[in-house]
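Sample A.
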Amino acid sequence: MTTSTLDLRGKRALVMGLGVNGGGLGVTHFLLQHGAEVTVTDLRSAEVLEPTLAALAGLPVRYVLGSHHEADFRQADLVIRNPAVPRESRWLQIARAAGAAIEMEMTLFFRLCPGPIIGITGTRGKTTTTLLVGEMLRRQFPDTVVAGNLRVSALEQLARITPQTPVVLELSSWQLEGLGEAQLSPQYACVTNMSPDHLDRYRSMDEYALAKRQIVEHQRATDIAVLNQGDPLVSQFAQHTRAQIIPFGEASAAWEPQGPAVRVYGDTVETTIGGGAWQTVCTAAELQLPGHHSLLNVAAASALALSYGVALDDVRAALRAFPGVPDRMEVVRELGGVCFVNDTTATTPTAAIAALRAFTAPVILIAGGADKKLPWTGFAAVVAEHAKAVVLLAGSGTTRLLDELAPVKQRLPISLPFDSLRAAVESAQQLAKPGEVVLLSPACASFGMFINEFDRGEQFRQIVQGLT
């Protein structure tokens, strides 16, 4: 399916996976607006999907919930798969064998978007980087669109995008799988970093990295790829793209960039984009973002915005004004001298390690949840260094987490897993003293006790706001 041949009038379109994060809702609206006959099929129940179903109330959509029907896949002209649906799904195989076109919301958007696309991926930092780039671009391009893996449907923004409208997209590995199959990459691409994640979905780290690499794989020579030169996996992506490479990373004696670049030099972000000597972009003291790791996100965002043509003064102004991102090192409240921080999107051990290292005050860590089959290398040592206590949430990953923390169990209290977030927060509050931090940074996925990590974060916010 190409832009020029896209005609959905009367086509039988099957949306596989409505979801609760907006993508399925956006694509369903899009299909209806273009005259398709839409069926939505999702293995989840109507009760779980209720908020999304409410947004579609009154529209001519046929629903198959709680199961899939083979006939729907055999009869479909077009199947739109949710990013969470594996490429190997037998239902997709049935549809392909019957001649259906397989698309994702993002592949449709890439085919139809008239404006330049700036795509951002990575294991950590991609949301912060995406939102930073959006704020930088809006200084010069007020109509900039920010969407993608942010619970914002890209397709629903299509009507307001012109050939001059910059589009900034956060892209997950699952979305990039579909873009790779369609041989689509953004004109501007950025990879923040790579560390083990989603190994419950991918068979190996190499397979996970291959999915991420699709963001640069199909770029042209006139495109830009902003790559973390200090990340061993990400730096290899340069061998798989025709785009111009703009590196960013920590300054080191071994790295002597020969062209445009952005570096983190101590607590300062500097750039040579625009030519000449290194110029200061910002210092850590000017930012509202906590932790040294935030400087690398700033470096990546600055490299993208400056490469796009945003003036350095506008980049600086956007950085000073940026308040941070909900659910990512978000200070929810100070109560009795205790700071409560919501970092629910830290769903990997690597992300939780970065969060712990951001604090000098003692931390009561709330962690645990669903197993993503990730390595826990170094986690126990960082917990022992930065945490005063660990409060655990129930989940399949918590058993592995307990085993990992066994060597430090004699040095700090570790609670038995709570099956109630409220009980876990109240336990953490009792352990905390003025000047200390209660940190929700689970290092695990959210499935089981919560709908998703955002539901976990919202529940944490509500519980903390209600504490006395």
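Sample B.
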Amino acid sequence: MLTRLIYASEPSQPLTPAAVQDIVDHARAANARSQITGMLIFDSGAFLQVLEGRREPVSETFGRIAQDKRHRHVVLLSVQTVDERLFGRWAMGFAAADASGRDQFLRFGGSDRFEPYTLSPGSAVGLLLALSGG
């Protein structure tokens, strides 16, 4: 059995594009070692991320994220047991939550802005899938 965990958070300080890329690169390497897959959406004000894999490594990864000083207001949106991965193509996919996603933000969140804290678990998965190209 697999676990799918979705959370939202805010950066504790402004992040440069290089800092975001460093986070994504680090996540890809760490997730590959732990057989975790997932997707991250980010704009300057918020993260939305899904992690999929065996329960223990997913829980450990989320615990590190929740304690990471680069995040604040970490909110667990969903955790569930699933039979298959939806984001299995990437150790960590990434999409910027920019103006090109407005239609998807409106479709899944009811607003043309990226507001991950307001998403239901189903809407969060839908948005993550839509922006992943999957």
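B remarks: Helices lie at 17-34, 55-67, 102-109, 121-132. The mean pLDDT is 94.
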